Amino acid sequence: MKLEYLPDGRNGLGLVRLYEYVPGEVQELEGIARKLAARACEQISLQGEKWIVPVDDCRLTLQWGDGDFGVRRVGPLSFECELTVDGWRSVVSLLEQFCNSKTKRFQWLTQPGRISLLISLDGHGERINSSSDILRRWVHSCSSSSLASIAISMPNSRQSWGGVFYSKLTRWFGLRRIITK
Predict the structure, then answer these.
(1) How far is it, in rounded angstroms, from Cα 107 to Cα 142?
(2) CB 36 within 8 A of CB 86
(3) Tell me: the pLDDT tens digits for 128-144?
(4) Which of 90, 137, 144, 177 has the most CB atoms at less than 10 Å from its CB?
């Protein structure tokens, strides 16, 4: 399983990605999340695990704490992900779908925080270079009525993530502003 930081993240602030894994490695990751959820350990540095391959010396420490803070930067390519017991239980639940098969999906593992944590399997040699690539793949899998529903609920402001999402939809798929509120 590779561990990599991509500076162009979902919120424009980067994402830490776990990818190119086999189900057994996801089971190891799920086991770590279970230990954190049970408070059997306080923190684990993923780059120290034999099944993790850090890209460009990326480092990620997983730890439990009093708040669901998500991923934060502690050095140029060093990050920590702090979640509560309930937060780690949620991660365990999200990882279960990846443990028994080589799913071609991706999953955001954290919601809080400004830097996102993502697990994805790059099937057929495809490489995800940014969150825009992930968003594009997701949009291609949606029906046109789903996209219209999403676009209708988006704010007109480009100051929020919704506005950025809407602008990408209009650029990629030629949706017109008449779809807005």
Answers:
(1) 16
(2) no
(3) 555 555 555 545 444 44
(4) 90
